[in-house]
Design a protein that fits this description.
single chain; 168 residues; alpha+beta; four-stranded antiparallel beta sheet
């Protein structure tokens, strides 16, 4: 019978290789998992902004957002006229999708699918659609409407200032 090779510290090569493999597996499994923000109710955090009739002011998206309609503001994503009523647009560079479920009502969600992290592809027929595994999400609240995804798209914060839709 032969002696197992050791690393010089009394540990076998097999133990070292097994530990390295286990660490790699743990890292891979962690990378595949998604943090859903800590529980249920994500659809309640869906970002939205209402266009105020003629005032040029708007409500900020999401809970706890600035509703003053003034100051700061982020980069413009689009003009309100570019977001079709009953539809929306995906802004891949900003990882956000903006929808207009009804006239003057704008909502924003993460454009990263909650199933396996693909970027959603488009908005049509009242749903935000992921091309990877055909998950579909409701344009009103980001809730899953079909496909393998079971968690809603997290809300994103936007502001509507006049005719501009901006990141909040």
């Amino acid at each position: 019978m032969t002696q197992p090779e050791t690393t010089g510290w009394g540990t076998t090569r097999r133990a070292v290789v097994s530990a390295a493999g286990a660490a790699g597996l743990a890292a891979a499994l962690t990378a595949c998992g998604k943090d859903d923000g800590g529980g249920s109710g994500d659809s309640q955090n869906a970002g939205s902004a209402q266009e105020s009739a003629g005032s040029g002011q708007s409500g900020a998206a999401g809970s706890g957002g600035d509703t003053s309609g003034g100051g700061g503001g982020g980069m413009e994503l689009a003009k309100t006229s570019q977001i079709p009523e009953g539809g929306g647009m995906v802004f891949k560079d900003h990882k956000v999708v903006v929808t207009q479920p009804s006239s003057g009502q704008f909502k924003a969600f993460s454009s990263i699918c909650t199933h396996q992290g693909c970027s959603v592809g488009d908005v049509s027929d009242g749903t935000i659609n992921c091309p990877c595994h055909q998950s579909k999400f409701d344009i009103n609240d980001g809730s899953p409407k079909g496909g393998p995804a079971t968690k809603p798209l997290p809300g994103a914060k936007i502001k509507v200032e006049g005719s501009s839709i901006k990141m909040a």
